[in-house]
Specification:
Distance between the termini of chain A: 39 Å
Oligomer: heterodimer
Strand content of chain A: over 45%
Largest sheet of chain B: 7 strands, mixed
Radius of gyration of chain B: 13 Å
Number of helices of chain A: 0
Order of helices and strands of chain A: EEEEEEEEEE
Structural class of chain A: mainly beta
Radius of gyration of chain A: 14 Å
Distance between the termini of chain B: 31 Å
Chain lengths: 113, 113
């Protein structure tokens, strides 16, 4: 039979606007979270990480927010550029070792000129 | 360029066969991780080695095995291949055993005919 691929939610934004990509994580015991960007034909590229003792962390043009109460993680990208178009994955680790990452299904970000 | 090198980039083989995927971690990284990315399962953690020793195990089939050599490169061996093993296989590395960003290679695309 035909295999069905994962349905990726898509976020379309205009170039220059801010993007917010959301992620609901699964395990309340998770203490390490990380965002990756994956372009077609390439491996996931590290963007930013955050530990559970923080609720916000900023990088270059990116901010990650963590809300442990509702098990929600978000990635904010400022002044979105065409090169930001990719699939974005959040990942969590609930084993305490920070090494067994469980990945979400991903969000496709499309930047329109 | 993440600094993680995976070979080969593409591999086409038949059911029942055995293949070996190779990974060279970033210079100085002691941990190597293997992941499988398929259309219907997303990105799944298989196994981690740290400085030659198995550190963590995920959803790795018994037909699959891995090892990390004294020079820190790693190999993932897949045997008795089935159609469902067709996927992208990624290797990632990090300096320590965990709680650090993992940096991914560009993967090996395995196609089973």
């Amino acid at each position: 039979g035909e295999s069905v691929g994962l349905h990726l939610p898509t976020l379309s934004v205009q170039e220059g606007d801010n993007s917010i990509i959301n992620c609901a994580y699964s395990n309340s015991a998770s203490d390490y979270f990380i965002w990756y960007k994956q372009e077609s034909g390439k491996g996931p590229q590290f963007i930013i990480d955050i530990r559970s003792n923080m609720d916000k962390r900023q990088g270059q043009r990116v901010t990650v927010l963590l809300n442990k109460t509702v098990k929600h993680l978000s990635l904010q990208i400022a002044a979105t550029q065409p090169g930001d178009s990719a699939v974005y994955f959040c990942a969590e680790d609930f084993t305490g070792g920070g090494n067994k990452l469980t990945f979400g299904t991903g969000t496709q970000l499309k930047v329109e000129l | 360029d993440s600094g993680v090198t995976q070979t080969p980039k593409h591999l086409i083989t038949a059911t029942g066969q055995r293949v070996t995927l190779r990974c060279s971690p970033r210079s100085g990284d002691l941990s190597v991780y293997w992941y499988q990315q398929s259309l219907d399962q997303g990105l799944q953690f298989l196994i981690q080695y740290y400085n030659g020793e198995e550190r963590a195990k995920g959803n790795i089939l018994e037909r699959f095995s891995a090892q990390q050599f004294p020079d820190l490169h790693s190999e993932l061996n897949l045997s008795s291949l089935e159609l469902g093993d067709s996927a992208l296989y990624f290797c990632a590395s990090s300096p320590g055993p965990g709680n650090q960003p993992q940096h991914f290679g560009d993967g090996t695309r395995l196609s089973i005919l």
